[in-house]
Amino acid sequence: MHIDLLGGFGEKGRTSIAVANGGRRLVFDLGIKVGAHGADYYPAIAGPLDGVEAVLISHAHEDHVGALSWLLAKGYRGRILMTAETCEQAPATLADYADAQDLRAFPFPRDRIEIFEPGQSLTFGDIDVTTGRSGHVAGGVWFAIESAGNRLVYSADVVPHSSVFVMDPIPSCDLLLLDASYGADPVSGQARVEAIRSWIAAHAGGCLLPTPLAGRSLELMAAIEGRFAIHAAMRASLDAQIAVGDALLPGVGAELRKRLAAAIDWRNGEPLPDCPLLADDGMGRAGPSARLIPLADEKGLPILLTGHLPSGTPGWVLHEKGRADWIRLPTHPTLSGNVAIWEQAGRPVTLGHSCGLEDLESLAAHISTLRTDCRTGDSVPLPRGEKP
Predict the structure, then answer these.
(1) Which of 133, 271, 320, 378 has the fewest Cβ atoms nearer than 10 Å?
(2) What does pLDDT average to over the chain?
């Protein structure tokens, strides 16, 4: 097998890889890079697309699916596969992050989407693809790609220690493409959740919690003690995510359903509520939070940011000014989680995606087989019967 690194290596964003074996080529994920412009906004896909048999999407966050309309505009006419949950969430992501002209010409192609279930195995000639629940969002998956006795695992985004979602074990492999978003962050997910819970409790009289619509929104709901509000446009999606029972840890669904039923619906133009308010997206780049972050700043409402903050986004700007607090809620593996995944996979040669060089080098001090020399645009061969 041969792996082309199309995005997310040596950088955060536009996550994408291509796996080829003989004349067959599969693409996994098609993300965009928030804050980038021109060609750097999209995966580094060059040349004709005729050789791409299928595109498989791990989940519907912008750094994994935001370039789908762009690829269709480039002439891609092959197969597109994803879970039912990703299929439902992807159109909203494209509405926020796709180029407007591409999206008008090539809207989300729902009638072309082939649905698979997390845990299902797929076959493309002599390439077998196994999937597993990622622990990151409802319907999110990792991919194990196998041919001629060699196996590559592309983790996409995973959360080994989520307090809400289930992650299936990563299998042993010859090459592991690992979610290195947090580098060697030693702070446990539970410690960060407790810090966020304490911050929210201290601002229970009113605060803004920008969050992605899928995934972290449920993690935040689980962390809030007491009454809270949501932007009314989020309710249907949150309800649909909670309904995916096998994506959630035992007992979590019932508790989240109870909390969502009690949540206050907030709508644009209403006075800001006297309780915590969840609104998507997490950076203020799109969605209701694009309007709410400036409004909260104007009104002096406390703001807590809990995820990735690309330079130049509204959330980043306010944090730089000292007008917004930031406590990262782990929706990717921290150090202990990534070491455990690597060991579970048999300590294979490993590439880290979704992080810059400094974070990658810090993680390499704990994962001895982690390569720090691979970048977007590089190719990594996986010769038959050997490890790379």
Answers:
(1) 271
(2) 94
Bridge partner residues of 325 (DSSP)? 304
**Residue ranges of the domains in the chain?**
2-184+331-381, 189-326
pTM: 0.93
d(Cα 133, Cα 135) in Å, to the nearest integer?
6
Q: Which amino acid is at 206?
A: G
CA dihedral 336, 374, 71, 237 (to 10 degrees): 10
Say if domain 189-326 classifies as CATH 3.40.50.10890: yes
Bigger pLDDT: 47 vs 315: 315
* CATH 3.60.15.10 is held by the domain 2-184+331-381: yes
Q: CA-based angle 44:50:54, to the nearest 5?
A: 75
Q: What is the spatial distance between Cα 315 and Cα 335, in angstroms, rounded to a whole number?
A: 25
pLDDT at residue 387 tops 80: no
Say how many Å lie between the first and final Cα of the chain, rounded: 10
For residues 94 and 82, what is the distance between their CA atoms, to the nearest angstrom? 15
Per-residue pLDDT averaged across 161-167, rounded? Answer: 94
Round to whole Å and give the CA distance between 201 and 18: 45
